[in-house]
Amino acid sequence: MCTIIREVTKIKELRLFTQDIVEPSRGWALDETIMLHVKGGDAPNSVHFWRSPSSIVLGNLRLNPDQMSFLEGKNVSIIRRVTDGQTFYADEGSLLLGFILDTRDPLFPRELNDLYRLVYSPIIETIENFGLKCAFDNTSYLFVDDVVISQVSQFWYYDVLVFQGVVYLDVDVNFANSAGILPKKVSSLTRLSSSKKTIKEFIGEASQRIREKFGAALVEGSLTDLEKNTFERVLKTKYQSPKWNLEFSPPLAYGKLLIEVLTASPPTKMCSQIEKNVKEGIKMSGNEEEIELRIWRRGRGLPPGVTVTNGLIEAAKKSQIPAVIVNGELKYGRTVPTPEEFLNVIKEEIKRIK
């Protein structure tokens, strides 16, 4: 049996999404949408169970042209998830899962291995209830003997943990292992166990264990109107984009105009003035909803999960402080634009990205 963290946390409620067969882009975009709103404090911790048509789910890997042509010929989608790590395979016989959790709650373990085991333990125990002995490597793979029965991966966005995975319930093992893309050999619960359960039964059993582990109600939910708007933007600009799925190049701000201000820490008088003028220019534009403003203090570091733009790197290397970076391009360094000057920059950039 796997050694699993048994401590129970005390989260009041977890929002549950259960979807049947969903296009890969929509399923993975849902997790990232929830992540953004959990970070923003306007969405609860959430759990997502779903299935998708046949797809190769990339983490850090970039496929070569021959691999892409092979998958296209087999009608297998290529999608990239937000979490790091090794490649998954998913089809209608797989169960995909996502936990999106704000770990600032002091009841979550601080040690990462303990945290990952706690989150994964309801899934592990449900698999073990098939009569299988399994071993978790602490970050990625759940093994039965020398084959993989489930995989997981993690991503941190500030203090929000995105924990995604797949359970190979009745997967097409022959294709998964013959495609030459997965790093390790996989098998299925159907092949390895005499205990037969439907995906619905697996979800029901896992859900009960989630309630027990987290000491929380698991409540069927849906996206809020605000989340729905974000979902459409995340879907269009990221998960339906070859730049992300094939080239591993994320959008800077999901289609919004990204404005970054880099200042000294603590800010000098010039730094404070440039920050003030940028904010005034944004307000004057009337496009606040289409702009994402990030204020960075030199030496403070960047939070996990934030894309570092080329302009920000350039400003830091050249000590161009204070600096204003617009959509990844260094626009002002050691100079302070007036609000009116910056308004003109905003107008031009808004036109360019639309």
CATH superfamily of the largest domain: Bira Bifunctional Protein, Domain 2
Q: How many distinct helices?
A: 11
Estimated structural class: alpha/beta
String of helices and strands:
EHEEHEEEHEEEEHHHEHHEHEHEEH
The portion of residues assigned to helices is 25-40%
Keywords:
354 residues, four-stranded mixed sheet, BirA Bifunctional Protein, domain 2, alpha/beta, Glutaredoxin, 11 helices, 36% helix
State the gist of this model.
This protein has helices at residues 24-40, 65-73, 112-128, 173-178, 189-192, 199-214, 225-239, 242-245, 269-285, 310-317, 339-353, and strands at residues 13-21, 46-51, 55-58, 77-80, 88-90, 95-102, 135-136, 141-144, 147-157, 160-167, 217-220, 257-263, 291-297, 323-326, 329-333. The protein is α/β, with parallel strands linked by helices and 354 residues long.
Could you describe the 3D structure shown?
- The chain is α/β, with parallel strands linked by helices.
- It has two domains: 13-245, Bira Bifunctional Protein, Domain 2 (BirA Bifunctional Protein, domain 2); 257-353, Glutaredoxin (3-Layer(aba) Sandwich), CATH 3.40.30.10.
- 36% of the residues lie in helices and 24% in strands.
- It has eleven helices and 15 strands.
- The chain has helices at 24-40, 65-73, 112-128, 173-178, 189-192, 199-214, 225-239, 242-245, 269-285, 310-317, 339-353; strands at 13-21, 46-51, 55-58, 77-80, 88-90, 95-102, 135-136, 141-144, 147-157, 160-167, 217-220, 257-263, 291-297, 323-326, 329-333.
- An eight-stranded mixed beta sheet has the order 7-8-9-10-6-2-1-11, with helices on both faces. The protein has a four-stranded mixed beta sheet with strand order 13-12-14-15, with helices on both faces.
- β7 and β8 (141-144) form a beta hairpin.
- Mean pLDDT is 94; it is low at 1-9.
